[in-house]
Each structure stands twice: as structure tokens, then as C-alpha cells.
Amino acid sequence: MIDEISWFAIFPEAVLLAMACAIALLDLRPQGPLRGYTYTLTLITLGLVALIEGFFASTGLTLYGFGNMVIADTMAAWLKCFATVAVMVTLVYGRPYAGARDMLRGGELFTLSMFALLGMFIMISGNNFLIIYMGLELLTLSSYALVALRRDNVQAVEAAMKYFVLGAMASGFLLYGMSMLYGATGSLDINEVFSAISTGHVRHQVLVFGLVFIVAGLAFKLGVVPFHMWIPDVYQGAPTAVTLMIGGAPKLAAFAVTMRLLVEGMLPLAIDWQQMLMLLSVASLFIGNFAAIAQTNVKRMLAFSTIAQMGFVLIGIFSGVINGNTISTANAYSSAMFYVVTYVLTTLAAFGVIMLLAREGFESEEIADFAGLNQRSPLYAGVMAACMFSMAGIPPLVGFYAKLSVLQALIASGQAMHIGLAIYAVLMSLVGAFYYLRLVKVMYFDSPITASEVVAGADVRIVLAINGALVLLLGIFPAGLMALSAQSVLQMLGT
Questions:
Q1: Looking at the domain assignment, is residue 261 inside a domain?
Q2: pLDDT score of 470
């Protein structure tokens, strides 16, 4: 018999699932071209779920449910809260864009987004290999359908096929790695896997073999080199609203799964997986930044930028354990969490501006399309410039503090190799500054190629203004979010 604590632990997931099914049924009734009822109910549901998660996080409790297969702790609650808000913002930005492209004939955009979010929730709270895999499949299957939502668009269908084929391969890597860990430890429970590895009563060769496949699967979900091939094509080919759905909130879930599997499950093997993450990070920073320079399509440029940004997240993760010493673990992992949250915040605003500039029958995706944006709309140009400066790591934007916190965690070890890696990361950031500042130059110093006014609804303008302001304010006052990240990581490590 399932106890009350189990149901309480998954209460937000239950609310989200029930409302997603209800909204899918209510969406069958005739509506206007922008699906007003479906849109409003979806935002109300997501707002309610975000408040529930915020309340859970404020209690500081750690709950285990369904035979320890599910965990509801502070880190899970905050990441799910942020993911929910990210999906809300994505739908606010994306509804006008999707409506203009006949993507709202049905309410699939909203219902599939809710099911994708449910998959993220399951991934974030999974304390068992099978639960994590179920959440991953729910997220990816919903994402495949979202990418192909414009069935009459060749680019979107091609992107969906590439995403499906490569995603299936990555899921196979992850599942095979999990099966190897089960064979080595005799358990699918993350806590029991940790205990088995700590005692040393495992088949070490099988364990390391499984670890390689686990890291490969996680690398694909994070989008780091050499498992990055899908990102540029899918980002460019998918409708921009769906690109943001893929490139925003799911990064929080991928970070959570990485922490669950590698830190909570296999921390005694840190010396093995940290070396793998270090190589992935170095390659991602190099290829992501240099490949982005050659791009003329903004979505493709931001795709390669994502690869480089995830390289910084990996820096925070692999600098947690130094020569078996875990004294700096909380600082390193909290800096990585801070980085991924602020990256998602910045990505939301950047793609929001791209969708704003798009018109019916015209995708504003080329760098040249941003020429003279400041003369057409100083507000939107300012928001986009803030995002570019933040991603480049220029103070006082939040991206600067995020990079600084990660590099401080890396340098804290005092090891020559880590100091060298920090210098390398800074040099790669300087390379990245070129393509970010190039877009700013085009917006402020080039002549506009069109005099058409940038039109947006009040909800989009308000949310975008708040989004842009947070990119600045969290850079000036980062202490609150950093403390929240530190508290979440400390509780996770303590349990």
C-alpha cells in the first residue's frame, strides 16, 4: 500500500498530469486561432505548480516515496520551480509566433509542453534508474513531436528526424550504462548503488564500463562535444518557439540527472568521471566558440554558444572532488547550479527577441536581420544586448558572476592543471565575446534593412522586460540565488 508521504512527494507531478489531460480534452472544443482558453488554463496550471514547488522548497524537507524511487528535496523543488517558470515564459513568447505559423490549429503546443515538463519533473526527482529513464523518454518523445509540429515545413521535419535518430542512440547509451551499473551493483536504486560502490563489493570493470556509457548519454543531453551534432541542426530547423522549449528548461533537468547519477550515485568514482567531464569541457569550449564565429544564422550561433556554455557547467561539476577531498564540493556544485539557472534565464530573453522580430512568412534568424534594431525598438535591442553581454561574461551582467563563480571553484584546488584550465576557459570566453559583440554591433551601428515596426502584445512586452531586467539585477545582486543554490546542494549532499 502506498503511504501518504509518497503521494505528497509527487503532488506537483499529479497536479500537472491531471491538468494536462484535462486541458487536452477541453481543447477539443472550437476556439480562436490563438487557443485562448487552452493558453490561459495552461498558464494558470503552470503558475499553480510553480507556487507548490516554491512552497516545497521553502520547507527544506527531504521526502522519499514509492520505495525510495522518488525523492523530493530542496534542489529538486527549486529546479522544478525554475523549469516551470521557464516553460511559462516560453509559451508567452511562443504563442504569437506559433499562431502566425498555423501551429495552433490544435492545442498540441501547450499540452505537449506540459507533458515535456512532466518528464523533466520525473527526471529531476528520480532516485531510481528506471524512473529517471521514464522521465527522459517522456521528455524526449514530447520534444520530437514538438519539433515536427509544423508538418508542412521541410526543415522542421528534417530536424525532428535527426533529433529522433540521435536521441534514440543517446537514450540507448544511457540505458545500457544503467544496465551495466545494475549488473555491477545489483540495484537500480541510486542510494544503494552509492553504498555498494563505497563498500567496494562490486565488479569494478563492469562498473567503469557502465560509467562510460552513462557519461556519454548525459553528454548528449547536455549537448557537449563530441555528442553535440544534433544541437545546431535542431536549433536551426525547429520552429523558434520549440527551439526555446528544447534549449531552455530541459537543461535544468539534464543538470539534475547528472547530479543524481554521478554525484549522488557514483561520487566514490569521481576520479574516473571527473576526467571524462574535463575532456568534454575542454573540447566543448574550443569547438563551441570557434564554430560559432563562422555562423550567420543567429539560432545556429546560439546553438554553438550553448555547447560552450555547457562546457562551463561541466567545469563546476568536475572540480568538486580534488584528490579525494570533498571540502570544496558544495561550492563547486552550487556554482554549476547557479550557472545553469542563469544560462536558462538569459536564453529565454534572447530567443524571446528572435521570436518578436519574426513576422508572418518571415523568420528573423540571420544576423543581418538585426541590423539597426536599436532604431526600430530600443527596448528589444537593449534586452538582446544584455543577453549577449551576459553570455560573453561582461560585468555587471549575471553571466559574468556565473563564470566567475565556476572559475573560482576550479582555482580553489590550487592545482596547476586546474589553474591552467581556468586560463584556457577565460581565453575561450574572449573568443566567444567576438560573435556576441558582433550581434550588438549590428543592432546599434548598422542601418536597418526594414522600417517595419516591432509589434508585440502587452503580456510579451511585460515578460520580456522583466526577463531582461533580471539578467542585469541578478548580476548586481547575485547573493540570493547563489545562497539558494548552495543551500540546495548542501541538502542534497547531506542526504
A1: no
A2: 93
Q: How far apart are CA 390 and CA 402, in angstroms?
A: 9
What is the spatial distance between Cα 219 and Cα 277, in angstroms, rounded to a whole number?
9
Residue 431 lies in a domain: yes
Q: Kindly state the average pLDDT of the residues 233-259.
A: 90
Q: What is the mean pLDDT of residues 407-418?
A: 85
Say whether pLDDT at 379 is over 60. yes
Domain count, the chain: 1
Residue 383 lies in a domain: yes
d(CA 31, CA 317): 47
Average pLDDT over residues 25-46: 79
Q: How far apart are CA 44 and CA 20, in angstroms?
A: 12
Integer angstrom CA distances of residue 373 from 353, 364, 435, 437, 472: 11, 12, 17, 14, 20
440 contacts 433 by C-beta, under 8 angstroms:
no
CA 135 to chain centroid: 15
Q: Is residue 208 in a domain?
A: no
Q: State pTM to two decimals.
A: 0.93
- Tell me how far apart the alpha carbons of residues 403 and 289 are, in angstroms, rounded to a whole number: 15
User: Which domain range does residue 371 map to?
Assistant: 267-495
- Angstrom distance (rounded) from CA 116 to CA 190: 23
Residues 146, 139: Cα–Cα separation, whole Å: 11
Give the residue among 116, 172, 122, 169 at the shortest CA–CA distance from 140: 116
Share of the chain above pLDDT 70, in %: 95
Do the Cβ atoms of 306 and 387 come closer than 8 Å? no
d(CA 455, CA 376): 10
CA–CA separation, 429 and 281 (whole Å) = 13
CA-to-CA dists, residue 277 to 169, 258, 283, angstroms:
20, 11, 10
